[in-house]
Amino acid sequence: MMMRDLCKLVRGVFAWISGLFIFIIFLILFNMRGLVHAVLNFFTRASMLACFFFFFGYLLERREGTTGDSAISFALLMAIGEGVFSICCLSAAWGYDALLFRLAPPGYVLILPE
Q1: Of 13, 24, 66, 93, which sits most exposed with the smallest number of CB within 10 A?
Q2: Is the pLDDT reported for residue 70 higher than 70?
Q3: Largest separation between any pair of C-alpha atoms in the chain
Q4: Whose CA is closest to 90, among 49, 42, 52?
Q5: pLDDT tens digits, residue range 15-46?
Q6: Helical pair 2-31 and 69-103, crossing angle rounded to 10 deg
Q7: What is the DSSP string of 62-86?
Q8: Alpha-carbon distance 3 to 111, whole Å?
């Protein structure tokens, strides 16, 4: 009987410590949210712009027909790669917000404005 009470006490202390640790991580990540989103939005916009330029460069190279196939496929590869990178940056921003919602303590109403 006494051992069961001791185990319950130890479990309660560990639950409190882990809850406090998760709350501290949540506060740190919540305070860094603006900076993280600013960096991810910058990379998203830059890669979308690069995707646009590489795609039109690919179209111009293809229309001219003066360059070799390797230059054309490199431009197309870069356009596709930049598009994928911009989608990954948008997914990372969404994942960061999803992580904040997951780490939020119970009873918190979390509103994340842009």
Answers
A1: 66
A2: no
A3: 87
A4: 42
A5: 899 989 999 999 999 999 999 999 999 999 99
A6: 130
A7: HHH--S-HHHHHHHHHHHHHHHHHH
A8: 44
